[in-house]
Structures are given as C-alpha cells and as structure tokens.
Amino acid sequence: MPARSELTPALRERICELHSAVHWGYKRIHNRYPWISLSTIRYTIKKEHERRAGVTKPRSGRPKKLDATDK
Prior knowledge:
The chain is mainly α. It has a domain at 9-50. Helix content is 41%, strand content 0%. The longest helix has 12 residues, at 9-20. It is elongated, with a radius of gyration of 16 Å. The termini are far apart. Residues 48-71 are annotated as: Disordered. It comes from Penicillium digitatum. InterPro entries: WH-like_DNA-bd_sf. This is Transposable element tc3 transposase, putative.
C-alpha cells in the first residue's frame, strides 16, 4: 500500500477544533472523516500543541544539496 500524504493544516485545525471546542470524541470525528484512521486522529490531537500556528514542523535529517535553481 502506498504511503499517504500528511493532513492539510486546515483539516488538522478542524479535527482539533471538533475535539476541543465541540467536545467530540475520536470515534465521532472518525465517523465524520472515515478516510482518516483513528490513530491519525489521536496523534493529530496529541501533537497539536507542538505546532506553531498550525504550521508543519520541519523534517529532521540532512538538508538536500542545492542545485543552480535553488541558489
């Protein structure tokens, strides 16, 4: 099975909003968005406080080598 792309910032924000403001549980959010797994919903809510303004954290590891167009 191919790897899936990450959630969009708007969708992450909506999931966390449903959990905190509307007090929906993981399963109820999953029923609303069935293509997102329960573990992804749990992880998104758990890690939301580490994100700054909903921006995705940079990946770890060595940066890629710059080519002529990137310089």
